[in-house]
Prior knowledge:
Low-confidence stretches: none
Mean pLDDT: 80
Shape: rod-shaped
Number of helices: 10
Structural class: mainly alpha
Amino acid sequence: MSGKDIYQIEEILKKNEELKSDELMLDLDNSIETCNRKRVDEIMELLGGYAKVIHQIRLIKMDYEEADIPEQYREIMEIVSYESFKALIEYINGGVIYLPRKKTLIKNNRLRYIYNLLVYNNYDYRYTANQIGLSEKHLRTYIKQYQDMSKK
């Protein structure tokens, strides 16, 4: 069922005065929650053919609450906030996400720092390598990595 179908069905339901009653829908919700089967059947009979459509719309529009989040994800939710967690769930949509280590994230800053230090030292590889405790070979490797990274 597409969003357009749902919109059309909602418009039909709005036009029907019996279905427009918020009290009737609230009564249906309460009866379902309290397992009052007799009252649910009465309301469904009153709703007639619209009952199935109403259930479908409600299932599609259904959302979750903070209490519904499984325990293993609660720590992440507490770190990023409930609203951010919901946005992340919506974005990832059941997929897998890789989060890099801090060391990986600071690598580019480290390479940039080393390169800027080399430039400051007028491209004196030996002096710069001694300043930061690297061999010249490692310094050249880092500079090459920085230059490759800068090209992207």
